[in-house]
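queue> pop job 88
queue> type: inverse folding (structure -> sequence)
queue> payload:
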């Protein structure tokens, strides 16, 4: 046998190979992993990164391999990478969170619960925030997340900190688990008696349950006790806004400390309420002492005058902004006001002057091109809109903001090839531009049949921002278009848990409709209508479903 022959003197004289260079051995799979990531092929990236981590014996590479494998939903490789990460000395909250996510994927809720308890027992706030993220984004479905949260409550694992309890209460609301929310509210009341922020959670629970009057009663009591607590008053205003009661939201802010930021919030709320008398009172209040050349105050007064359709006064305020960064915003707003006054030639001259002002910062000059395009679109001047974009790109070649705006313009006109071309131009200059990756992937998924290509683009965006609800929505939508409807349902539910949005709700409703769950679908169609009845995705979904 060859082995026997090599066991004699000849074998002893044969030089042994030099020890392998771990860096060199890891380089090829590492490069392959990066190329696969750039192409949106997460399964290949997961395999290559795991190979690189094994070759290099590097804890950071093992962590990276784990995260990519989890994102690729490759549970086998994720388990191997996790074991490698642990063996190479990995520890801390990131490791525990990854362990919890993988356990949830494997339906090992006992192990997931153990890792979540580890996170929740960590000092500071980072641990419970990680646990919140695992339950919100790592669970297979809302029911699994709700079960784990309930068991953690049974274990008394949530730290005795009000922000943590409020956050988990908000998660329970997002998961649409009213009984669980009620349990958390009761526990918060017991643990933090007299704490006004507990009332906010209770009010939001009543709002979600359809009891708007009950929510308003709690908020009114809180407002009476808020005093000068600016943070609480902003939270009250936000809750009133969610109820659609913009006037009450403005009153909550008006009763506390005032500065220009609060004044601006009040003005925006009153504008949403279309409460011209209250806007007028606020405007008159702010005019007192406005002879002082304060750029921020004069800019705000100009915006208020715009809300009130006092365009001539708005123009005077904007032109009176003496300097500072507000000056450039004021010049843009002046052009918009001139357009509102039907002084269109002057409006376009104003934007042209700003476009050519060498003293203006690049961002202001670029925004002047974008404003001109928006005004041309409003005038129904399609050729002028495109010319404005073209001149903007001549001045700022391959500017991502202008290309993105023009791509959206092409998409509105159903010219998908040109929309795609502009988004790809962004990606040539900025291969990791997440907004462009997501927009192009979603456009291909929604408006073409190039679903595999769309998936790769969205996977690249997911790699950069795995918890971004807009990207999760795009991912769910492309899964639906690929016929993977049950997987799509999981992702779209996750996205809606993270962000209440009309387009996400419409997508979820359409998938449910296709699955024959029409009563549940109608619930989400109704939710989308309440959020934004004019949403284009909602209108298309309703038309396709015939709902």
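queue> result:
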């Amino acid at each position: 046998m060859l082995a026997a022959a090599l066991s004699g003197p000849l074998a002893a004289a044969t030089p042994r190979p030099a020890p392998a260079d771990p860096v060199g051995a890891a380089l090829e799979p590492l490069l392959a992993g990066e190329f696969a990531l750039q192409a949106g092929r997460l399964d290949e990236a997961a395999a290559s990164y795991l190979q690189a981590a094994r070759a290099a014996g590097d804890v950071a590479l093992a962590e990276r391999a784990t995260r990519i494998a989890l994102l690729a939903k490759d549970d086998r490789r994720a388990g191997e990478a996790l074991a490698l990460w642990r063996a190479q000395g990995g520890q801390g909250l990131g490791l525990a969170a990854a362990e919890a996510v993988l356990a949830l994927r494997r339906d090992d809720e006992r192990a997931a619960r153990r890792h979540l308890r580890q996170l929740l027992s960590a000092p500071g706030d980072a641990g419970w925030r990680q646990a919140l993220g695992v339950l919100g984004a790592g669970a297979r479905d809302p029911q699994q997340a709700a079960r784990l949260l309930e068991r953690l409550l049974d274990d008394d694992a949530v730290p005795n900190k009000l922000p943590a309890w409020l956050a988990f209460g908000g998660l329970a609301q997002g998961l649409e688990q009213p009984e669980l929310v009620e349990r958390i509210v009761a526990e918060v009341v017991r643990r933090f008696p007299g704490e006004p922020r507990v009332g906010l959670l209770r009010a939001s629970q009543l709002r979600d349950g359809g009891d708007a009057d009950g929510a308003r009663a709690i908020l009114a009591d809180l407002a009476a006790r808020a005093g000068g607590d600016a943070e609480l008053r902003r939270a009250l205003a936000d809750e009133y806004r969610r109820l659609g009661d913009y006037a009450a939201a403005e009153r909550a802010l008006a009763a506390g400390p005032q500065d220009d930021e609060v004044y601006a919030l009040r003005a925006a709320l009153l504008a949403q309420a279309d409460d011209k008398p209250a806007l007028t009172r606020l405007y008159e209040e702010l005019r007192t002492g406005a002879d002082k050349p304060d750029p921020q105050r004069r800019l705000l007064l100009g915006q208020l005058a715009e809300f009130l359709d006092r365009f001539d006064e708005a123009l005077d305020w904007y032109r009176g902004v003496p300097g500072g960064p507000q000056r450039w915003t004021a010049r843009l707003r002046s052009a918009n006001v001139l357009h509102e006054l039907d002084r269109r030639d002057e409006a376009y001259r104003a934007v042209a002057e700003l476009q050519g002002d060498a003293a203006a910062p690049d961002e202001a000059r670029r925004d002047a091109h974008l404003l001109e395009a928006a005004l041309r679109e409003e005038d129904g001047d399609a050729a002028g809109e495109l010319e404005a974009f073209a001149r903007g790109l001549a001045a700022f070649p391959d500017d991502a903001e202008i290309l993105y705006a023009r791509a959206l313009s092409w998409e509105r006109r159903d010219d998908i090839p040109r929309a795609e071309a502009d988004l790809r131009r962004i990606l040539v200059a900025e291969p990791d531009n997440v907004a462009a990756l997501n927009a192009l992937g979603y456009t291909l998924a929604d408006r073409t049949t190039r679903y595999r290509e769309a998936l790769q683009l969205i996977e690249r965006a997911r790699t950069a921002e795995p918890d971004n609800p807009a990207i999760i929505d795009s991912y769910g939508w492309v899964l639906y278009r690929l016929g993977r409807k049950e997987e799509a349902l999981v992702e779209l539910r996750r996205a809606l848990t993270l962000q209440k949005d009309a387009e996400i709700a419409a997508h979820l409703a359409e998938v449910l409709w296709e699955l024959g769950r029409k009563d549940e679908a109608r619930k989400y169609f109704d939710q989308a209508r309440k959020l934004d009845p004019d949403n284009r995705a909602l209108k298309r979904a309703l038309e396709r479903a015939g709902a």
